[in-house]
Design goal:
The structure holds two protein chains of two kinds.
Chain A (H helix, E strand, L loop, with lengths): L3 H16 L7 E6 L2 H6 L1 H14 L6 E6 L11 E5 L5 E3 L4 H13 L9 H5 L1
Helix pairs in contact in A: 3-4
Chain B lengths: L3 E6 L2 H5 L2 H14 L6 E6 L11 E4 L3 E3 L7 H10 L30 H4 L17 H6 L4 H9 L2 H11 L11 H8 L8 E6 L8 H8 L1 H15 L3 E7 L3 H16 L4 E4 L4 E10 L8 H8 L23 E5 H13 L1 H5 L9 E8 L5 E6 L4 H8 L9 E6 L6 E3 L9 H6 L8 E6 L4 H15 L5 H18 L5 H17 L3 H5 L2 H9 L1 H8 L15 E3 L9 H5 L5 E7 L6 E5 L9 H5 L5 E3 L1
Parallel strand pairs in B: 1-2, 5-6, 5-9, 6-8, 10-14
Antiparallel strand pairs in B: 1-3, 3-4, 7-8, 10-11, 12-13, 12-14, 15-18, 16-17
Helix pairs in contact in B: 2-3, 6-10, 6-13, 7-8, 7-10, 9-11, 10-13, 17-18, 17-21, 18-19, 19-21
The chains are: A alpha+beta, B alpha/beta.
């Protein structure tokens, strides 16, 4: 180790790994991973979120986790996004591609992707 | 891409309750469910809640599973890791809060009563990082303090920072660490040393062990900082050979630190060289005394030497040496990083920061706790420790092991810090905290610790070698019912004599358990002497077991279990029963209690 910069580099590289253990960030992305969700293809959606959140450097703000069945199996894969002081957003019939978009627009840009939300499907 | 991490405790407690098997099963099951790329297993150091081991924590949610068995693992993997539903029956939950929203269960460790009142500085990485991975330590700001000290601070500034923080030696003595360093720094010598005292010997204490097992790099970093501050290029960690996991993790950590250039030559390009070696102790208690420890490192029999000269002037190999305890070192990187004011903001006026205690004895949450100085004993016992098991009454807390004293119930609201404990004739000690309930005999407790110091006395000076032995004999006289009130005065006199005349800390503090119990529980001593009675029912010679002949149905289970065949049937048949009752012949009774334990009719009592 010859400089502080070198140490910083290792720290930055490892940040993702330990930040997970410091508790949840401001935003929680919860993917429905009950049998219905898995059957409908929730695994790739979950993985896409995890990958994109990490690649976009959002790990310190966003926590991705799973949950059980929330009762709207016909809309699976369901993804809910919780953020303090904001209303919960529920995305339905998700795919990996849609997940990518949600990360880009919602998590990064702060703009809800209206057309994938449950409101858009029900109306 | 990892979305979840499973932390498995690899501390000594959980290892012995089976965490390696659980880890292997997790590996298998994670493969089974094809989660290898999504879930990462991490073996960490001690979480602190040893009584609930083996402990597993799942992140990001922080779900805390206790007493996990191999058979539980498939369920955790399928339900929690795959489907995201925590296995509630295994979740440790003593939080006061109820579920507020159903998507976020209060399963997190930080919410439990055990952790809520704690403040983790020395233990900050224990149970959080993989101690065998230097990069995880670096990710938690590891070695940043060393970098800061070497590149931005002068040695004087480092010492000033430690002095201003108010950090005092955590090994028990409470000597200001900054002053210790400042005394050593100006001494000129071709070679100076930094020594870490990891010869933790108090019965029931495992603070240093857990730090070494859970966060070994913190000690390496702190020792390098100390080396820079006092101008030493060599360091030794003296750790007992009975701590195999700690030794192994420390060895791995030292090798990694060398590989990353954090030990060795020209660290951080500053021109500062520092390297470390481990020395294994054979387990003699006296080697925890600083001069005996140095003598032992030099390869000689571990015996103390008179001070002065103090180690700061003539220590290891007759060279200026700074010796600090593991927990003291564990605080150093945080002080350098966050500043002296940050550290000084915690604790009381003269005792800054936090203290780690190994909580043991008659308490629900046995384990390791770190609290800000000034926390009351009541908070430690009732909130963090979860109270006394089986609804028993708190009697006293023993601090400082064989060198310490005890705190009786009347002083349970004393804020715990160095000076308050000294004021009540107790001692902070290294952090063993043994809780005793109404079933503990204080004379017996004093005898236990005294026996320990009698065994561990190195024999170099007479007051300790002979005085302690005589003290022990007088205590034995009392617990066997042959003591007199004059003995109590003689005991007190001898205690003070040993304290004043012994060569090293061992002898100077060894009478403390006796003095403290005499001070707070003199009535118990008097009961042993005058009434020939042990109020707690512990001292065997003063007990007798008797059978209530009217309750005895004559089943004979007591006689069958008596190892010395001193229970026989009588002709007396209690009203309503058919067989003759039994009686115990006191002359042969060894008071083992086997009869009472086996009687199903509560016909046997001890007095």
């Amino acid at each position: 180790m010859k400089s502080l910069a070198e140490l910083q580099k290792i720290k930055a590289r490892m940040q993702d790994r330990v930040v997970l253990r410091e508790g949840s960030g401001d935003i929680r992305v919860v993917v429905g991973m009950a049998t219905c969700g898995i059957a409908a293809g929730a695994r790739p959606v979950l993985n896409e979120f995890v990958k994109d959140v990490s690649e976009e450097g959002l790990s310190d703000k966003v926590t991705v986790s799973q949950t059980g069945c929330i009762g709207i199996c016909q809309y699976e894969p369901v993804v809910e996004i919780f953020q303090a002081d904001k209303e919960k957003v529920t995305y339905v019939k998700m795919t990996a591609e849609k997940a990518k978009e949600v990360v880009e627009q919602h998590l990064k840009g702060g703009k809800v992707v209206e057309q994938y939300t449950i409101g858009a499907y029900q109306s | 891409m990892v979305r979840s991490q499973v932390l498995i405790c690899g501390g000594t407690g959980c290892t012995s309750s089976g965490s390696p098997k659980i880890r292997a099963e997790f590996e298998t099951q994670i493969k089974n469910f094809d989660l290898e790329n999504e879930v990462k297993l991490v073996q960490t150091g001690c979480f602190g809640l040893c009584s609930l081991g083996p402990v597993v924590i799942v992140y990001p949610d922080g779900t805390f599973y206790s007493r996990v068995t191999e058979a539980d693992v498939p369920e955790i993997v399928e339900e929690h890791l795959l489907k995201g539903r925590p296995v509630e029956r295994l979740v440790y939950n003593d939080t006061d809060k109820k579920e507020e929203d159903d998507t976020h269960l209060d399963t997190a460790l930080s919410e439990t009563r055990f952790y809520k009142a704690q403040k983790r500085v020395a233990l900050r990485n224990c149970g959080v990082i993989d101690p065998e991975n230097i990069e995880e330590y670096i990710a938690m700001d590891g070695y940043a303090a060393l970098g800061k000290a070497l590149t931005e601070m002068t040695p004087e500034e480092v010492i000033q920072c430690v002095t201003d923080s108010g950090l005092r030696g955590r090994g028990g003595g409470g000597f200001p660490t900054g002053r210790k360093w400042a005394l050593c720094a100006p001494n000129k010598a071709p070679q100076k040393y930094v020594v870490c005292n990891a010869d933790e010997g108090d019965p029931g204490a495992f603070m240093d062990r857990s730090v070494l097992e859970g966060d070994p790099h913190a000690i390496i970093e702190a020792m390098a900082i100390a080396g820079y501050a006092i101008g030493a290029t060599k360091g030794y960690v003296y750790v007992r050979a009975e701590y195999p996991i700690a030794v192994k993790r420390l060895s791995i950590a030292i090798a990694q630190a060398r590989e990353y250039g954090l030990l060795g030559k020209d660290i951080f390009g500053s021109g500062f060289d520092f390297d470390l070696q481990i020395r294994l102790g054979a387990g003699a208690f006296v080697c925890g005394e600083e001069t005996a420890l140095m003598t032992s490192i030099e390869g000689n029999r571990g015996e103390p030497r008179p001070r002065p000269p103090y180690p700061a002037v003539r220590g290891l190999y007759n060279s200026p040496t700074v010796e600090n305890n593991v927990e003291t070192f564990a605080n150093i990187p945080q002080i350098i990083l966050n500043g002296a004011d940050w550290f000084a903001s915690m604790g009381t006026e003269k005792s800054k920061g936090t203290k780690v205690f190994a909580l043991g004895g008659k308490i629900n949450n046995t384990g390791l706790v770190e609290i800000p100085m000034g926390t009351t004993l009541r908070e430690i016992i009732e909130d963090i420790g979860g109270g006394i098991p089986n609804g028993k009454k708190f009697k006293a807390a023993q601090t400082g092991g064989p060198s310490g004293g005890c705190i009786p119930e009347s002083l349970i609201d004393t804020p715990v810090d160095y000076d308050n404990l000294t004021a009540i004739g107790c001692m902070m000690g290294s952090g063993g905290l043994i809780i005793m309930d109404e079933d503990s005999c204080m004379v017996d407790m004093a005898k236990f610790f005294l026996q320990f110091t009698v065994d561990e006395s190195c024999g170099k000076c007479t007051p300790c070698r002979v005085g302690m032995k005589r003290l022990m004999e007088m205590l034995e006289k009392i617990t066997s019912g042959k003591g007199t009130l004059e003995d109590l005065d003689r005991i007190e006199e001898l205690c003070h004599y040993i304290k004043e005349n012994s060569l090293c800390g061992l002898g100077q503090t060894a009478p403390n358990p006796v003095l403290a119990t005499l001070k707070f529980f003199r009535d118990e001593y008097v009961a042993h002497v005058v009434e020939k009675r042990c109020p707690a029912g512990v001292c065997k010679d003063l007990l007798s077991y008797t059978i209530d002949k009217d309750k005895c149905i004559g089943c004979g289970l007591c006689a069958k279990n008596c190892p010395v065949n001193t229970i026989t049937r009588t002709d007396y048949v209690a009203p309503g029963h058919k067989l003759g009752s039994f009686e115990i012949h006191q002359d042969k009774c060894i008071k083992c209690g086997a009869c009472m334990a086996n009687c199903k009719f509560k016909a046997i009592s001890k007095k």
